[in-house]
Amino acid sequence: MTVARPSGRAPDALRPVRIERHYTRHAEGSVLVSFGDTRVLCTASVDNRAPGFLRGKGEGWVTAEYGMLPRATNSRNDREAARGKQGGRTLEIQRLIGRSLRACVDRGALGERTITLDCDVLQADGGTRTAAITGAYVALVDAVAWLKKRGAITRDPIHGAVAAVSVGIFQGVPVLDLDYAEDSACDTDMNVVMNDGGGFIELQGTAEGHAFRRDELDAMSALAEKGIAELIALQRAALAA
Amino acid sequence: MTVARPSGRAPDALRPVRIERHYTRHAEGSVLVSFGDTRVLCTASVDNRAPGFLRGKGEGWVTAEYGMLPRATNSRNDREAARGKQGGRTLEIQRLIGRSLRACVDRGALGERTITLDCDVLQADGGTRTAAITGAYVALVDAVAWLKKRGAITRDPIHGAVAAVSVGIFQGVPVLDLDYAEDSACDTDMNVVMNDGGGFIELQGTAEGHAFRRDELDAMSALAEKGIAELIALQRAALAA
Amino acid sequence: MTVARPSGRAPDALRPVRIERHYTRHAEGSVLVSFGDTRVLCTASVDNRAPGFLRGKGEGWVTAEYGMLPRATNSRNDREAARGKQGGRTLEIQRLIGRSLRACVDRGALGERTITLDCDVLQADGGTRTAAITGAYVALVDAVAWLKKRGAITRDPIHGAVAAVSVGIFQGVPVLDLDYAEDSACDTDMNVVMNDGGGFIELQGTAEGHAFRRDELDAMSALAEKGIAELIALQRAALAA
Amino acid sequence: MTVARPSGRAPDALRPVRIERHYTRHAEGSVLVSFGDTRVLCTASVDNRAPGFLRGKGEGWVTAEYGMLPRATNSRNDREAARGKQGGRTLEIQRLIGRSLRACVDRGALGERTITLDCDVLQADGGTRTAAITGAYVALVDAVAWLKKRGAITRDPIHGAVAAVSVGIFQGVPVLDLDYAEDSACDTDMNVVMNDGGGFIELQGTAEGHAFRRDELDAMSALAEKGIAELIALQRAALAA
Amino acid sequence: MTVARPSGRAPDALRPVRIERHYTRHAEGSVLVSFGDTRVLCTASVDNRAPGFLRGKGEGWVTAEYGMLPRATNSRNDREAARGKQGGRTLEIQRLIGRSLRACVDRGALGERTITLDCDVLQADGGTRTAAITGAYVALVDAVAWLKKRGAITRDPIHGAVAAVSVGIFQGVPVLDLDYAEDSACDTDMNVVMNDGGGFIELQGTAEGHAFRRDELDAMSALAEKGIAELIALQRAALAA
Amino acid sequence: MTVARPSGRAPDALRPVRIERHYTRHAEGSVLVSFGDTRVLCTASVDNRAPGFLRGKGEGWVTAEYGMLPRATNSRNDREAARGKQGGRTLEIQRLIGRSLRACVDRGALGERTITLDCDVLQADGGTRTAAITGAYVALVDAVAWLKKRGAITRDPIHGAVAAVSVGIFQGVPVLDLDYAEDSACDTDMNVVMNDGGGFIELQGTAEGHAFRRDELDAMSALAEKGIAELIALQRAALAA
């Protein structure tokens, strides 16, 4: 199967991925992640209190917030702060990021504290939520390292790694890591979050045009597995740097 | 593989499903759908205007809103109207219902009008979103029939049928149509929306505990296919009554 | 005086009234009340905390919330949760329901807890607030019985019964229990809440067209007394069932 | 029947009432009304557009808004603008004021324009809503006179007069025009709006303590009639000045 | 330099200023301040709790809220409580008033309590924020005197006096205390807050038309100094009355 | 006068300033401006419609919005979009940026369109509003150049240049361009906006501790003049690159 991707990439090729740690100086973890032209600033902030529903339970919490600068996109979007509420898409994405990251955290080992992952899109070109998850993982690891260095925690609350990528059916062919041109033209789009053990954490597929078949689901899952393995290797390299 | 489901059901058994048409008298389509103790009132309301972003394009729109009565659940939830905003879960579900139903609608044939599907949960026992999609489809068909009877549309805008069910891994075994007791205890939970051609429209899987493997994804997909085929038969029976 | 009521009822006739207890299974009290085609689901939820302004005073509280499903009416209303606020009519009605029910409650005997009465209109045909008060009373009694059975309270906090009905001047004639057709055409409309001792708890009359005279006020009050006596008998019968 | 009113007034005595026209200079009608220590600034503002729901129907609209300065009362209330919403009591009162004033307006004669009555309480001592209605009537007449003087309307849209007063049962005795000390201690409280023909426009009675009987309703209605006749005479005198 | 001010005033003349204490009866301090036709009601309310961020620190707080009645101005403005939020201009002004008054308060001497200054504009003709600051100072002094009389505080927390005035360049000439006619036509507008020691507390200049030069800044500062000295004398006289 | 600035800078020294054009790719103008560790992304977005209040008047508009990423600061701030409103500080700053930039725009020459300047703080270290104005000017010039290149406008709507800097009194000495360490410790803080003709556009001084004298105002104004001249040179250099 061949397909002419707008970017000229092979069907199973990721965009160039860059993970820059310590991008800003105040946050305990601060990562600028780029999937091609998609750039997301992910910061991890430590708060030494658990949220209300966990007080006194000896457990911590990891949560996420997501935002997009008004002109991160081709035409300007209203600023959500000015509109007075976060849209459904925003809430959906930040819930996804939070669940995904909690999947690799031992909340007892974290202790009664909260780590908030702020994922703010500086420039969007498709795949902002998967870039956000992939970058937020690195920011989270840095924030936990900061806690460990200060002796605030003893056991490592992070088990394994988590990364995410989108896959889709573009002109009948399964492709990896859709950019905006592909995303807006494809029939089916699936966001996949996996861990380094090859297990699925989240899988959200949507048929934009025609409904997808079991064999397409299989092909997309396989592509996602390949892409996420590469992303996890890149996270490791960034953390080792 | 055997499992003791709290309800005593076989792993591949749906709960008793009931689809009552014409449940309330004002709406163009009005269906009370029950998946066991989960009861959702789905109404379809016709408005002879397209939403702003479609004005003058000769196309219609199908959208959904979702709500849960404050005491539909075991402990009372705040009323969203009183809190002043719909929560992230609500927005996520109503976006899912809207996308799912639009997948079987020819918006050109619908013409410049809007059909709003209100899905209000009177009683919750797991699977409210899948019951809502399954019931809303029937309400939508009734509303379209109402339009056809009045000669407002000529071509049928509905192609095929759409239904939804949840599947999960409960005590290591894939099970169909989780009730609340299973949902809150299971490791993995997946909501699946399919059409009557066996194609996937939406697929949203979440690992609550351990991440799920490819073979588990396969088993759950197969269960969903079986359940949805049964639900579509029940929709047909209800519409033929 | 004779009048042709759209429903064919006599001027002093209530619509068929039905009070179904245990309509949903989670709430401590759950009643579906019907005044003709008006159907309101009234649930009573017990919370073992008093509201903030009563903490430490040894008293409880009874409060109400009111909502209408978007398509309970002839044309669809915006969902208040989506609009981001409850309208003035909604707030006015839920304040009325709360005050009316508190009039038969000994808050000291209730102890430091809150009972919330959620009155949600599934179908509207006039008189939703009076149906809500009449049904909520039965749900409240059931919730209190639930507390007594568990030994949580010893003295009965309910003294007497409370019910409500609307009266009006329709084509010059005083009539009882207006349905929507009458309500939208009548000159004067009055909602009356009374107890089983024949005392007035609330009385809210509005001249839509011409102002009403003292003798019309008298005639409407007498009709309300008759109707409420019948409603209280129906409440008793339902509670005895 | 005798009663020691905190103010020393006879049971059927109004507080000193003052109606100052032209209190502020920008509004088409501007009245400071005082019922004893209760002082409400009522302005009438003319807008040469009808509200959306009346466009093109050749009719106008009269509406009201009500507010209370934060320290109009004994202890400071939150500013509603800062809280981000108007409370239920505020909405209830402004709806009452609007309905009451519309009862004396021929909306066809007014033409496609809107008159907004802003009633802002500078100091509260009970009876703010009845003072507001009584004062807003005078502001409305002034605004209509302004329109007539400019030739904008030909037929007088005001028919008759409207005024309001509260009545109640204080220590077992029916009393007129309750001040705050009486209002907070009385058993029953009724706000009455009437026109100069002696007809009832609105009547809202609430039993705070014991439910009231028919004879008490009669006595309160008679007191209200007396008080409103006096208020209408004072309105006339103010307008003639 | 001569200029024809719309009011006929000399360039360095204030409008007639009136400071009426005890304007309403509930607040601990209540002042109606008039700068010509600009009339602002300033109340000071004492709350015996410090705000959350100061609890347990032995310090008090002074804060301000500002509002404008909808028809205080030439054409009616939306009511902020009805719109559901305070506008940017309102927030900016109330922050300015709060900062200005805190500049003369020893928060340790005040003790753990909050004084809220509500500044509500009854009629606007330019300079509402400067009138508000000037009047709020007097209300604050009265509220502190009330605390001293009750023995609640021992040391005087007020050091010095604070007043404010606007200055501007109107038709090329620096003028003092702009009214609305001047304000809307002038090139530059500056609000100045000073203390009785001749020190600047706040200074906010805006070039509406052409940018202003250093010599114009000097001239405006000198005018402000003169005007504020007069205002402080008027405050003293009012407080001595 | 000597002072030990935390940064070691001379009293009249700016921080290192960097102006990077074309920082993101979608906006018509996109500038990352750095004043030391303060980094603000300023984008200019062109919309070919004037705002409602200017429709049909042949004039355009320039407006600004300001935001701060939650972890741009030392401790995390709530996300304004999640809180549901922009704070007073945010509104005040975005109003200041908008007014400042409009001061160099000929709105007739711009034609009926809107340019929105989004200033989002990625990292804060004092002086975010002055950096925002300085960077937004460059983004505005780039957006206007984009319009000119497409032939959408013929006359240049930009006259002159606008830049801003903060000045203050730190340990008794006037200093230029305060960083966060100085800002939080200084007695007086003044934000100054000027044009390239040396005229003042905005001047906002606040005494945090002791009130400032005329000679201090003079010294600060002189420092601001010097700093802004340097900033305007840097803007020119960036635009020439």
Order of helices and strands of chain A: EEEEHHHEHEEHEEH
Amount of helix of chain A: 25-40%
Largest sheet of chain A: 5 strands, mixed
Largest interface, with Cβ-Cβ < 8 Å?
A: A-F, 35 and 35 residues
Radius of gyration of chain A: 18 Å
Class by helix and strand content of chain A?
alpha+beta
Spans of chain A of at least 5 consecutive residues whose pLDDT stays below 50 are none
Percentage beta strand of chain A: 25-35%
Shape of chain A: globular
In what order do the strands lie side by side in the largest sheet of chain A? 1-2-3-5-4
By oligomeric state, this entry counts as homohexamer
For the residues shown, what is the average pLDDT of chain A? 96
Number of helices of chain A: 6
Question: What's the count of strands of chain A?
Answer: 9
Distance separating the two termini of chain A:
38 Å
Describe this structure in words.
Six copies of one chain form a homohexamer. With 241 residues, chain A is of the alpha+beta class. Helix content of chain A is 32%, strand content 29%. The first copy, chain A, contains six helices and nine strands. The first copy, chain A, has helices at residues 80-83, 88-102, 107-110, 128-149, 180-183, 214-240, and strands at 17-21, 29-35, 38-47, 61-68, 114-123, 162-170, 173-176, 188-195, 200-207. A five-stranded mixed β-sheet of chain A has the order 1-2-3-5-4. In chain A, β6 and β7 form a beta hairpin. In chain A, α2 (88-102) crosses α4 (128-149) and α4 packs parallel to α6 (214-240). The longest helix of chain A is centred in the C-terminal third of the chain and has 27 residues, at 214-240. The termini of chain A are far apart. β9 (200-207) of chain E pairs antiparallel with β9 of chain F.
